[in-house]
């Protein structure tokens, strides 16, 4: 039998089925696949590094712009406070910020299409013109008032720089890679994350900036705006910066708000044309401070933002103490006149004064021979009072926060050696009293620091048509059972109040003791009490007494008191009170003086 013929070597399956699934396993394709994988392996690390770098740069740039506008939000408020006061400036500020954020996030694509250049190049131009616009709009405050002035100024300054910045951030973050996150979170994170970071910076800078303001030129109000404009110029240089040249020149040569020697000379010339002169000025944690003198009438005053901390007549020769321009400061000295169970001898007495101003009250206490301690939070206020007003050197100055001082001192005030015969509480700035200094807890600390037979006098400036005086008086009487209340000025008629439209804004002084067994009476005034001062002869003995019934029960008074964690009860009424105070200040000093700074 013939053996079957052996078949020839079968070709590879890939050759017989070139279109089949195993076609890629040819030698040529196998080598090609290896080369492809090798190229991918080589390129993958460099590609990732590049992508990571791009993402990091994108987020860093976004964080930087959000950081700048977070700071600018507070710098804008600082720049408005000398003209409007800190409280009126802030009433609509948050609304401007929210609208700017919303508009900026909404128009980012439109901005990219409309502008023939990158939107970031607008930022330095806007920043350089902000001081110019603030300076120019400031001259219209008499017509704009606090109703429109602050919001219009910020709509022309803060709003544009925030809107463009937010639009740029929105564009950058549109390319951010959030693929590792759930879709719902990836969509929401850029917007909410950006706003959250902005608010964090805004809150931190709001607390930090006042603590450092005034340290040097770049930490003044205009200095910070110049610093921010320079920063924007560095990050977005372009030929468009030539458009900002007029603004740079105006800020350097003509803007009296800039704290330079040249602007001080310019300011002096403008003041003299109005019958005023500026003796000195500076910026500190309580606001913009300046020592002003009316050369026509003859008085000198210490200004803080849009309010006066005190003043004295310079046309009268000083014998023992200067003559105050406000009677309320002389009235505070009547704390010495309150009858006590055992008469307090001046040379053996101690006094604590909370809030310095120009030092009218502590100066008188010192001249009576009383060992006087003054707690003032602002070192520049103390420096100006020493240098330009008649504050005697022989007092004990403590530059500290009064709330902290009182809390710490009350904790160790076990014996009378740590306590005071008299306490004078006289704090005021920006058209409203610092709310923390009228809480139940702070008043309780002061009560601890007051001797059992001691006397406290508390000055509160507010609108008697609002519930704020009632809140304050009720809180004080919760701690001190025996009190009498006096207004600086008698109440005007309803017709007069309606005519001038600024409420019933005045100072009231509350004299109190710890005693529940006897009332509060003032001894007769003797010539030595007046320190040869005409103002004290007229105003030392308290006048214009009011009762709690005159204060309690106004519309909005809910019978509450002010506690440390419930300061909003008082703050909400301070907005209206500050607006009324702004109107009063415009009758005391001409608008042009406030506007020039």
Q: List the strand order in the largest sheet.
A: 8-7-6-9-10-12-11-13
For the record, what CATH class of the largest domain applies? Alpha Beta
Q: Architecture of the largest domain, according to CATH?
A: 3-Layer(aba) Sandwich
- Tell me the number of strands: 13
Q: Outline the biggest β-sheet.
A: 8 strands, mixed
Number of helices: 24
In the CATH scheme, what's the topology name of the largest domain? Rossmann fold
Distance between the termini: 127 Å
Instruction: Using the CA coordinates, give the radius of gyration.
Output: 34 Å
> Helix/strand/pairing class, anyone?
alpha/beta
Quick one: overall form?
elongated
**Integer count of domains:** 2
Report the mean per-residue pLDDT as an integer: 89
Give me the CATH superfamily of the largest domain.
Vaccinia Virus protein VP39
Beta-strand portion reads: 5-15%
Percent in helix:
40-55%
Low-confidence stretches: 1-23
Keywords: Membrane, Polyamine biosynthesis, Transmembrane, Transmembrane helix
InterPro entries: SAM-dependent_MTases_sf
Transmembrane segments: 65-84, 96-115, 122-140, 155-174, 226-249
Region (Disordered): 1-26
């Amino acid at each position: 039998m013939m053996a079957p013929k052996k078949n020839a070597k079968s070709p590879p399956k890939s050759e017989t089925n070139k279109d089949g699934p195993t076609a890629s396993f040819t030698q040529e394709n196998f080598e090609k696949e290896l080369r492809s994988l090798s190229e991918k392996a080589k390129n993958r690390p460099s590609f990732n590094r590049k992508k990571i770098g791009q993402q990091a740069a994108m987020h860093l740039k976004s964080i930087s712009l959000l950081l700048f506008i977070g700071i600018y939000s507070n710098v804008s408020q600082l720049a408005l406070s000398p003209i409007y006061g800190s409280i009126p400036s802030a009433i609509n500020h948050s609304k401007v910020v929210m609208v700017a954020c919303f508009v900026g996030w909404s128009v980012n694509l439109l901005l990219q299409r409309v502008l023939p250049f990158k939107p970031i190049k607008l930022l330095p131009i806007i920043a350089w013109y902000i001081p110019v616009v603030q300076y120019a709009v400031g001259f219209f405050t008499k017509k704009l008032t606090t109703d429109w002035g602050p919001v219009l100024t910020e709509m022309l300054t803060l709003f544009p720089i925030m809107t463009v910045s937010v639009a740029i951030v929105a564009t950058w973050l549109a390319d951010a890679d959030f693929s590792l996150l759930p879709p719902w979170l990836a969509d929401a994170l850029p917007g909410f994350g950006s706003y959250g970071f902005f608010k964090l910076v805004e809150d931190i800078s709001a607390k930090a900036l006042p603590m450092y303001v005034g340290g040097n030129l770049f930490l003044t109000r205009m200095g910070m705006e110049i610093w921010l404009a320079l920063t924007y110029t560095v990050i977005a240089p372009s030929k468009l910066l030539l458009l900002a040249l007029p603004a740079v020149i105006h800020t350097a040569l003509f803007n009296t708000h800039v704290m330079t020697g040249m602007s001080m000379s310019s300011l002096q010339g403008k003041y003299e044309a109005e019958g005023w002169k500026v003796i000195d000025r500076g910026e500190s944690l309580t606001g913009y401070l300046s020592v002003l003198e009316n050369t026509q009438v003859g008085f000198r005053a210490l200004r803080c933002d849009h309010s006066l901390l005190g003043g004295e007549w310079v046309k009268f020769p000083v014998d023992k103490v200067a003559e105050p321009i406000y009677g309320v400061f002389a009235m505070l000295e009547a704390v010495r006149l309150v009858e006590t169970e055992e008469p307090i001898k001046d040379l053996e007495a101690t006094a604590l004064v909370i809030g310095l101003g120009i030092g009218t009250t502590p100066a008188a206490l010192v001249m009576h021979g009383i060992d006087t301690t003054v707690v003032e939070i602002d070192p520049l206020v103390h420096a100006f009072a020493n240098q330009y007003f008649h504050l005697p050197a022989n007092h004990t100055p403590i530059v500290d926060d009064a709330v902290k001082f009182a809390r710490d001192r009350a904790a160790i005030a076990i014996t009378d050696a740590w306590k005071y015969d008299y306490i004078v509480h006289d704090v005021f700035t920006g058209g409203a009293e610092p709310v923390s200094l009228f809480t139940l807890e702070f008043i309780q600390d002061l009560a601890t620091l007051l001797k059992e037979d001691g006397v406290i006098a508390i000055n509160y400036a507010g609108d008697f048509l609002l519930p704020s005086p009632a809140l304050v008086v009720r809180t004080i009487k919760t701690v001190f059972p025996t009190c009498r209340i006096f207004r600086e000025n008698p109440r005007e008629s309803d017709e007069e109040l309606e005519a001038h439209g600024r409420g019933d804004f005045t100072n009231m002084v509350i004299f109190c003791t710890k005693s529940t067994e006897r009332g509060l009476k003032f001894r007769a005034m003797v010539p030595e009490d007046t320190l040869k001062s005409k103002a004290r002869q007229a105003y030392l003995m308290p006048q214009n007494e009011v009762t709690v019934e005159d204060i309690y029960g106004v519309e909005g008074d809910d019978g509450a008191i002010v506690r440390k964690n419930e300061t909003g009860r008082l703050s909400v009424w301070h907005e209206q009170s500050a607006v009324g105070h702004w109107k009063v200040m415009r009758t005391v000093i001409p608008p042009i003086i406030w506007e020039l700074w």
